[in-house]
């Protein structure tokens, strides 16, 4: 049952890998022209009408290491969210978090007039999965108040804290897109959990 439910996670991992291979074939993942052509997020270009970049940027990666780290996160977190929320709600969390993080980052960049960015990667969507798991563990804690529910909630909060410490020390990592993805994923997950209990 678990393997069957994880099919969407494998599909998303495969889609990211295929898109990365396309980057390599068209000039390399570190080639600015290539990643721009394939849809990297450039805030000024998005507000000029190329809103499709809010989606495509989620499937682009700078390097094999960037791809590998994100796909490991997607594999483990995605399987858990797929199992706990179901396929349809999982896809809602993933894509709303990814699109929302890119859109929020664009809005922030434009309003602060700090637009010297080119953003790409699945980490906003993946942090959305973290947010939804946080909502789930918070619900479990609220309902059960058990030791295991408390430990799960403490673990996910510690993991989030460590992630943001990591973001702070690695300038190439977008702290804001991670934060936006996390917040969006938390509230989307919370809403879906509330609706499932009605």
Automatic annotation (TrEMBL):
Compartments where located: Membrane
Assigned GO CC terms: membrane
Membrane spanning stretches: 7-26, 59-78, 90-111, 117-141, 153-170, 176-195
GO-annotated molecular function: serine-type endopeptidase activity
Peptidase S54 rhomboid domain span: 49-193
Keywords assigned: Hydrolase, Membrane, Transmembrane, Transmembrane helix
Superkingdom of origin: Bacteria
Organism of this sequence: Rippkaea orientalis (strain PCC 8801 / RF-1) (Cyanothece sp. (strain PCC 8801))
Family affiliation: Belongs to the peptidase S54 family.
Record membrane topology: Multi-pass membrane protein
The name this protein goes by in its record: Rhomboid family protein
């Amino acid at each position: 049952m678990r393997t069957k439910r994880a099919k969407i996670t494998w599909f998303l991992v495969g889609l990211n890998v295929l898109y990365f291979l396309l980057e390599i074939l068209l000039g390399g993942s570190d080639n600015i022209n290539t990643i721009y052509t394939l849809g990297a997020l450039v805030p000024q270009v998005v507000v000029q009408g190329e809103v499709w970049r809010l989606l495509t940027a989620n499937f682009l990666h700078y390097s094999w290491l960037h791809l590998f780290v994100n796909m490991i996160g997607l594999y483990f977190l995605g399987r858990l969210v797929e199992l706990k929320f179901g396929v349809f709600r999982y896809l809602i969390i993933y894509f709303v978090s990814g699109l929302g993080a890119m859109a929020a980052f664009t809005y922030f960049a434009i309003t602060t007039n700090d637009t010297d960015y080119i953003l790409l990667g699945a980490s906003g969507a993946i942090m959305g999965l973290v947010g939804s798991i946080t909502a789930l563990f918070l619900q479990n804690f609220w309902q059960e108040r058990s030791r295991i529910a408390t430990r799960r909630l403490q673990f996910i909060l510690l993991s989030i804290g460590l992630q943001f410490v990591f973001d702070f020390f690695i300038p190439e990592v977008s702290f804001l897109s991670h934060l936006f993805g996390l917040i969006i994923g938390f509230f989307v997950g919370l809403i879906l959990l509330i609706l499932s209990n009605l």
